[in-house]
Amino acid sequence: MLDSSKRLIGFAPPSIDEECIAAVERVLRSGWITSGPELSAFEMELEAYLLSQRVLCFSSWTTACELALRWFGIGPGDDVLIPAMTYAATANIVLHCGARPVLVDIDPLERVVSLENLKAAWTPHTKAVMPVDLGGWPVDYPGISQWLNSAPIRAQFLPTNEVQTAFGRPLFLSDAAHSFGATCENAPVGTQADITGFSFHAVKNLTTAEGGALSFALPPALDLEKTTAWFRAMALHGQSKSALEKSQSGTWQYDVVEAGYKCNMTDIQAAIGRSQLKTYPDHLQRRKAIATRYSQALSPVSWCTLPLLQDAQRESAYHLYSIRIEGFDSKQRDALMQQLKNDGIATNVHFIPLPLLSLHRNRGEDLRNYPESAACFQEQLSLPIHVQLLDEDVDWIAERLQFHVEKLMRNPT
Q: Residue 5 has what pLDDT?
């Protein structure tokens, strides 16, 4: 039974304030609601926040990162290394390109792919490496970058197009959908990989309802202007001029250079993002405070493995607070989630390992080949973390979590 004295606690409600609503109204009244001046301003503000060479926004993380794979020429016969523990989109975009997602097991403590596991999965067919920052925790960016730039990797890399020749090694494409605002070596995540993909989906720390962005940190051999012009064109059917560019140039003529896609971000979405970016540093600090409070409450509990939040090199974006309950199986975990739901507390699981999904089982994947991902899935539970949480909510969640876990441990059936 739900304690009537406690309010319902959602898992990840979007943070939409009056300023955000006013920003959308301003754009709706401006007469320019598609990709235009608001989008350009948002991209420049993201560049400043991330200290990035260039940021481009798109309709989603998925479309943005698929474009990155296609730009690099990923296709049939190519392998892309990704974690076995991630959301389906990471693998889907590789399959869309006709390439093979090669699954890599996670580190049990960090819950992201380790450099050692990536090295073990690499073959001369590997054309891209796409690790995932799970829950906001960054991967070993310096280690992965150094490895991909090493002489042995370069010596065995076989380029098949002009872009790959300029790289002389596999593409480092980071799935940073969870880690906008995280840092690595005192720099924002978004400047370490060749291309970093962020998500602004409704449940993310910073949202544009739907949407995503790419941050570029390309090798010097690549022409940044030429490259980003290609991405802009391909997000608009391969058209050589956007509507804004046509209006500014005073001429309607355009060309279509390639068979592109339709995955641009609108000014309405950008207005939401710009409003959210203004308050994001404060929101990030609040998420950190919530995560720290959870850790203080749960650190004495012997059965609870806490998420990593900060070390000498990295700091999380505090997107998820995912614990592991030692010795639990998925049946017990699901029973726990129901008990917490009865208390008005929403929880989640991140993620179902890819080999458990029909798509990947039918590809021949077997979860037994990824024991750390399998074990993490059995024990993992994500607790609410968002700026609408009060300190008393966090304490209540931690209290009810301990009560129900210990009850289930006493009565496992």
A: 62
Cβ 264 vs Cβ 280: under 8 Å: no
pLDDT of the residue at 3 = 57
Strands 195-199 and 171-175 come out as parallel
In the chain, what percentage of residues exceed pLDDT 90? 94
**Structural tokens at position 326:** 């030692």
For residues 221 and 367, membership in a common domain is answered with no
Determine contact, residues 345/339, Cβ cutoff 8 Å: no
Total of domains in the chain? 2
Asked if 113 and 240 sit in the same domain, the reply is yes
Is 4 a residue whose pLDDT tops 60?
no
Does 157 map to a domain? yes
Residues 267 and 286 in one domain: no
- Same domain? For 87 and 162 the reply is yes
In this structure, are 228 and 292 located in the same domain?
no
pTM for the full model?
A: 0.97
| Tens digits of residue pLDDT in 225-270 | 999 999 999 999 999 888 788 788 778 899 998 999 999 999 999 9
Give me the domain span that covers residue 59. 18-271
- Computed over every residue of the chain, the mean pLDDT equals 96
- Counting beta carbons within 10 angstroms of the beta carbon of residue 8, is it exposed (0 to 12), middle (13 to 18) or buried (19 or more)? exposed
Please classify residue 10 by burial: count the beta carbons closer than 10 Å to its beta carbon, then call 0-12 exposed, 13-18 middle and 19+ buried.
middle
Same domain, 260 and 287: no
Q: What percent of the chain has pLDDT over 70?
A: 99
- Same domain, yes or no, for 120 and 62? yes
- Please, which residues have CB within 8 angstroms of residue 208's CB and are 6 or more apart in sequence? 57, 200, 265, 269, 270, 272, 273, 276
